[in-house]
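Ticket #4471: structure output looks truncated?

Reporter: J.K.
Steps to reproduce: submitted the chain below (292 residues) through the standard prediction queue, then opened the result file.
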Amino acid sequence: MSQRWITPAELLALGAIWGAAFLFMRIAAPEIGAMPLALIRLGLGGLVLAPFVWRERQKVLEREHWGRLLAISVLNSALPFALFAWAARYSPAGVIAIANSTTSLFAALIAFVFFREPVGAVRAIALLAGFAGVVVLAGGRAAGMNVTEGAIAGTLAASSYAISATLIRKHFASLPPVPVAGATLLVGAIVMLPVGLALWPDHPVSTPAWLSALALGVLCTGVAYGIFFRLIQRVGASRAVTVTYLVPVFAVFWGWWILGEPITTRMAIAAALILGAVALSHRRTGGANTLS
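Returned output as attached by the reporter:
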């Protein structure tokens, strides 16, 4: 493959993988449950990246980082994974993925409120349009379901990602990113362990649900994190986060193709508002990492 095609190919593959994460959650969450599924995802993703954590353990696992690592593990892994899995029980894959796209908007809002970064007219319009998209998304039905709860949960997960991205930039910018990602997954799994085990399903779970949980943890978390941070190191964060635009497209496509979930007018309007707002925001800033 020509060198110039490697980055577009990896971005396309990453968008497809992260878009599929919402499909896998839709299949697995109703049978396994939100908290156990989040535990499985955290544990498997952490195991995939564990060799990188071990190699850099003296830097990443220093005692001075423990408190911050715990906070980031909750905000960047345990909490959003649980929220997405819970939302997947009530909303189509595309709805949750579109809500997830607001991460960059929340990052801009946090930068303004807490760090007094100037917003400007363009970013202000972007924020208003993006959050208007959330209101549109949360106000209807899709695939016969009231999606309000799922849209709100997905938006809360996106805000959690944005807060954690701010903390990572502030406290872990000098550390290698892949080991940091792996450490947050492993610590998040420890945090989630008591709740996940307490709510572990006591009924038979189908093979498709188990396979979806496996793919969610190994492929959509561990492998995808590795691809994403490799992209950041090679082409920079501002180009790597363009995957933000691909994830909801693939999520809607997988949900429609595999599960027969309809693509509604309300979803299209919300996606146009949110992704358009993200595009405007990225013209003014490098954006935030948007993980699924």
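Triage note (M.O.): checked the attachment and the full token line is present. The radius of gyration is 18 Å.
Status: closed, working as intended.
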